[in-house]
Here is the input.
Amino acid sequence: MSVRSCVPSLADSATNTLPSGLGLYIHVPFCLQKCLYCSFYSVTNQPDLYNRYAAAVKEQILRFAERSDIQAQQVHTIFFGGGTPSILGSDLLTRLLKNCFLNFDCAPGLETSLEVNPATVDQAALHELRRAGFNRISIGVQSFDDRELEVLGRVHSAADGIRTVQMARRAGFSNINLDLMYGLPDQDKHKWQESLQQALSLQPEHLSLYELTMEGNTPFAQRYDRGELRLPEEEVVLAMVATTEEMVTAAGLHRYEISNYARPDRKCSHNINYWHNASWLGLGPGAVSSLNGCKIKTISDVECFCQPGANKEERETLDNEAAFRETVVMGLRMIGGIGLEELEKRFAINAISYYGTTLDRLIAHNLVTIEEGRLRLTGQGLLLANTVMAELV
Amino acid sequence: MKNIRNFSVVAHIDHGKSTLSDRMIQLCGLVADRDFQDQLLDSMDIERERGITIKSQTVCLPYTAQDGQEYELNLVDTPGHVDFSYEVSRALSSCEGALLLVDAAQGIEAQTLANLYLAMENDLEIVPVINKIDLPAAEPEQVALEIEEDLGLDSEITQQCSAKTGEGVADILEAIVEYLPPPEGDPDLPLEALIFDANYDPYRGTVISVRIMNGTIKPGEQIIFMHNKVEYRVEEVGQFLLPKTKKKSLSAGQIGYIIAGVKTVSDTKPGDTITHKENPCATPLPGFKEVQQVVFSSIYPITSDDYEDLTSALEKLKLNDASLTYQKDSSAALGFGFRCGFLGLLHLEVVQERLEREFDISLILTVPSVKYLVSLQDGKEVVVDNPTYFPDPGTIDYIKEPFIKATILIPERYMGAVMSLCMERRGENTHYHYPMPGRIEFTCELPLAEVIYDFYDKLKSVTQGYGSFDYALIDYRQSDLVKLDILVNSEPVDALSQLTHRQRARERGMKACESLKEEIPRQMFKIDIQAASGGSIFSRTNISALRKDVTAKCYGGDISRKRKLLEKQKAGKKRMKTVGNVEIPQQAFLSVLKSDQ
Ligand SMILES: Nc1nc2c(ncn2[C@@H]2O[C@H](COP(=O)(O)OP(=O)(O)OP(=O)(O)O)[C@@H](O)[C@H]2O)c(=O)[nH]1
Ligand code: SF4
Ligand SMILES: [Mg+2]
Here is the structure.
């Protein structure tokens, strides 16, 4: 195999336009401790698996890299997500990233993101990771209130969060995202404003702000069902949403997706590629690839994933209409919506005639609008996104 | 013919009829063990899900008895639930004998009695069977005593078994051969075939289940259906082996099926007689007693495009469920539909589910009602089973409502609880006696409207599962009724109206508002719900507007799962009916009648 070495330049990539190449996602399914609300696939206390895991990912990389349809495309973004990728340590992460650079045709200056959790990286590690080629870092701080962090079952403190951001800056990261959650048990509007203010004062280029949701079988959902958790009233959550918009905008960040805010040049290209329902490779247990309209899921079981040769995959192919509808609802997550012409070019379906009166009704109810050839959610529609999407899916 | 036995298995609900049928099927080697599944004859999805039998099922068992002779045993497994007693009575009409099962731990219950009486009315020979003797709580001696003393049946021939373990089942097969009589009839007389059931097969037309009383039928012969004199040519006859198996002929005494290319669904009527065109029988067989529907509700397709499909679905379902009645109906809120009569609320639910599953139509059922007799001031009397057509109260002289006589069997200690339940439901004229020490047979006259919904559930809960209940309509009695209207965003919704006793109107109105608040999902605007009667509103509530419905996170790995959730949300919407601008889900219509839990 020819070695297509491409160490990305330090320049940050422009991310405003529609991504045309492949995204590459690597799922790292390990965490220090399971957070109480989390329904992601990850396991704890398995450091002996890290090397075998890395070997299995490498195997997957090699297998994909052999495919001619993948060789024909450039990788435009790389994203190490989890779980807690930083738990692997900078050596393993550096090795894995090198494997990606070596085996895929990577665009120059591509966006290369790494998720880290506070208290899992030190200054030295962050320097090494920056030097290895990661140029975007996403820090799961979740809250800047120690009591809230405890309720969530996070392993770190608010101070750990702040320190991690400062260290990342010192390590040379000029594209930092912070994950924060609102609508937490016993949180009021004021407490949320404090957390958010603390986040903004660290001057991140990007913010992901998620409302807490009760998922499936998590300990949180169980406690909630037993009536042991008091979530803020809908009124309060709506007030949080409103204040968020004001504070974040004032800080020079713009909302570009339901839960994502960024400086204009720092939107996350990797995620935008998902919302375009374009093509990407997903490696690691539980990750999903999307290639030529076919979704391929790798088995969500680390043990099984680490068995050499045993790569269990599930495939799902949608017909053109279903893929079209899926693309519409994904696209509506972005504040800028979807370009109708582009959509028609891609699926040979005209959205306006396809949805007919359903769309008329949504427009009449002021939930969506069509402006300058783009279909998008209105302010009201953003709050009722699922109601709208359930009409269009 | 002397080697044929036709018998039904009858019992109170859950006493193990279908399980015993399983064991007999296996003992006769009709199904390979690897193809076997529990309650094999409960073939409909709803039967398997609910674990109850809804339709009678016939199966033909080839059996070699201990005397070395080959027998043909036609077994009919019947449902035990009170709503389906019509299925039992039709099954009995094709049999000479019955196995009456009694659960060794529960003893005699209300449908044990009801089904025994049915069997006796049909002059059937009865073999009592005490089942579930494997249970730790089994008291077979006690139950044997009850069978002898309370039911007056012959304890000499009473069998004991565990349908679960199979113990005693071989002896039951011998007892069937020994104690039940073979059919009578003459294969050389003119053909008399009683239609006792039917099923529609889209490829072959109606598959007709018959009991041949006299004569012989073969493929190629011309037959006529006596009620409407239509003529068909027999394509195939056969027996209910598993799977059903083609035979050269069916003759007097046998149970089997006929396929004759009958595509006009209404030609086949359970209870009708089939005879030959040449040399017909003189008169049809007596057929079946008309059933009385007790609960009425209107069915509407959720999408009005489905109306045609619903029409043909009802016709086909009626073939397989002779106890259902329907006629055209329309509603201001819901458009065109059908007013249907049911034997009870379980029957109603079953019909709804079968229409949805077997015919793939989403339906709305309106609030169920009983049939009232309304005497007008001008001397006329009108029958009202639909609140929509309730006359202007100013023109009404008086109203009568149907009463039932309930027979309730309970251990003595629950007497107080059952008495107060009946009083709460406007019961009158209570009596009781002790058929056995410690057991009470309690009778009470109650308005039918008070028992249709959840009386049985309530009875079960106040008696910790020990109470059982059977009922029969007795008469109509004068009653003070009012129409209760429900207004959604100030618009009355005719499909949510109900007739109720004046004293219960307020309570029911409040209850209806609460149930609707529970069942109607929040929508983009506030929804007012009011209960009113005669123009005065006496209960109100509202559903606040939906203000937030959004998924926070959705990235590459979640897309499929999130899409499926949205699709589910979409499918849920499809099952709602838009009334005015409010989307009302299917279950809301029935919830209005549910009493507090
Ligand atoms: N322990 C024990 N359980 C039994 C026996 N026979 C039946 N059952 C159980 O009793 C329950 C009801 O059995 P069915 O055979 O469905 O009863 P059924 O009389 O056909 O009920 P319906 O058709 O609904 O009236 C099931 O859970 C059976 O497994 C038995 O001999 N012993
Ligand atoms: S660190 Fe992230 S992935 Fe791991 S358990 Fe917590 S929320 Fe889940
Ligand atoms: Mg049964």
Q: What stands out?
A: The pocket of guanosine-5'-triphosphate (ligand 1) is lined by residues B 11, 13-19, 39, 51-53, 79-80, 131-132, 134-135, 162-164 (CB under 6 Å). The longest strand of chain A covers residues 106-116.
